[in-house]
Design goal:
With about 200 residues, the protein is an alpha+beta fold. It has one domain: DNA ligase/mRNA capping enzyme (D-amino Acid Aminotransferase, Chain A, domain 1). The protein contains 5 helices and 10 strands, in the order αααβββββββαββαβ. The chain has helices spanning about 1-5, 10-20, 55, 140-150, 175-185, and strands at about 60, 65-75, 75-80, 85-90, 105-115, 120-130, 130-135, 165-170, 170-175, 195-200. A hairpin with a 5-residue loop joins strand 3 and strand 4. This is Snurportin-1. InterPro entries: Snurportin-1 (IPR017336), Snurportin1_C (IPR047857). It is found in: Cytoplasm; Nucleus.
Length: about 200
């Protein structure tokens, strides 16, 4: 909720207490807090093949692009880098993302990959939707929610004045050998990164 509302009341005193506890012999330069940093899921290399790969894992084919934390709240949509820098503000048709459809309760937080070539935010995961957090939900439920709710928002997959960037959910597939072979032979409307993303 703090991410969506940009409300960090009370957090300053906690940070000051931490600083008081630390004794430093060097002069420090005061940096702005990066409250939007480290919010995205990080990827790791899969070194060993898990025994439950075909049953419990999902593959997501990702486009070439930059990861972005999308926060739609208070009638505006903001895009942040992995390190927490705001790189763009715009209106969108996401819940809470423009002044026409924004209410105090509506905010949306998405984990996306931005393709500059296609002017599209490809949605990798849903973190919050219309003020409902999904952080503690199972991956398959979040993907189900994403693929059922994104199409319900009319015009979200189109580039318009109110929605200058398209928002498209990335498809996911089971990690069975047959499914992986099928996925590798598919054509996608974007340049695919390698390797593919696997999620438990």
């Amino acid at each position: 909720r703090r991410l969506a509302e940009d409300d960090w009341t009370g957090m300053e005193s906690e940070e000051e207490n931490k600083k008081d506890d630390e004794e430093m012999d060097i002069d420090t330069v005061k940096k702005l807090p990066k409250r939007y940093a480290n919010q995205l899921m990080l990827s790791e290399w899969l070194i060993d093949v898990p025994s439950d790969l075909g049953q419990e894992w999902i593959v997501v084919v990702c486009p070439v692009g930059k990861r972005a934390l999308i926060v739609a709240s208070k009638g505006s949509t903001s895009a942040y880098t992995k390190s927490g820098y705001c790189v763009n503000r715009f209106s969108s048709l996401l819940p809470g993302g423009n002044r026409r459809n924004s209410t105090a309760k509506d905010y949306t937080i998405l984990d996306c990959i931005y393709s500059e070539v296609n002017q599209t935010y490809y949605v990798l995961d849903v973190m919050c939707w219309r003020g409902h957090p999904f952080y503690d939900c199972q991956t398959d439920f979040r993907f189900y929610w994403m693929h059922s709710k994104l199409p319900e928002e009319e015009g979200l997959g189109e580039k318009t004045k109110l929605n200058p960037f398209k928002f498209v959910g990335l498809k996911n597939f089971p990690c069975t050998p047959k499914s992986l072979c099928d996925v590798l032979s598919m054509d996608f409307p974007f340049e695919v990164t390698k390797p593919l993303s696997l999620l438990p």
